[in-house]
């Protein structure tokens, strides 16, 4: 009886994983892709605005000075000119961090 219960739990977990994974794949297939703009040299707030205007919905700035206009963007987690799904997280790295 105990083994039967374990098997049942394993089957339910597997079906749940396939269902969730399938939903993620379907969601990714229907999401729009956008080109990553080059924001190197921008201030952090300006870079966030440009990336959001391009269509990205999950932009994060690294470091404690994320909203400081004196920061300078050194790079992003996604390379400029590449394409990515609009919901993919993109991190903006700034100097002094």
CATH T-level topology of the domain at 33-96: Trypsin Inhibitor V, Chain A
Structural class, judged by helices and strands?
alpha+beta
Largest sheet: 3 strands, mixed
H/I helix tally: 2
- What share of residues is helical? 40-55%
Question: Which strand order does the major sheet show?
Answer: 2-5-3
Helix/strand order: HEHEEEE
Q: Approximately how much beta-strand content do the residues carry?
A: 15-25%
Count of DSSP E strands? 5
Protein name: PASTA domain-containing protein
Domain PASTA: 30-96
Signal peptide: 1-28
Pfam families: PASTA
Written account of the structure:
This protein is an alpha+beta fold and 97 residues long. The chain has a domain at 33-96: Trypsin Inhibitor V, Chain A (2-Layer Sandwich). Helix content is 41%, strand content 21%. The protein is built from two helices and five strands, in the order αβαββββ. Strands 2-5-3 form a three-stranded mixed beta sheet, with helices on one face. Strands 1-4 form a two-stranded antiparallel sheet. The longest helix is centred in the first third of the chain and has 29 residues, at 2-30. Residues 13-20 and 23-28 have low confidence and may be disordered.
């Amino acid at each position: 009886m105990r083994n039967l219960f374990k098997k049942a739990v394993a089957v339910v977990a597997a079906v749940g994983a396939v269902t969730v994974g399938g939903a993620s794949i379907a969601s990714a297939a229907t999401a729009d892709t956008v080109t990553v703009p080059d924001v190197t040299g921008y201030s952090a707030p300006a870079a966030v605005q440009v990336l959001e205007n391009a269509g990205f919905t999950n932009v994060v700035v690294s470091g404690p000075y994320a909203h400081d206009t004196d920061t300078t963007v050194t790079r992003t987690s996604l390379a400029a000119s590449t394409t990515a799904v609009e919901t993919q997280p993109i991190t903006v790295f700034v100097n002094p961090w």
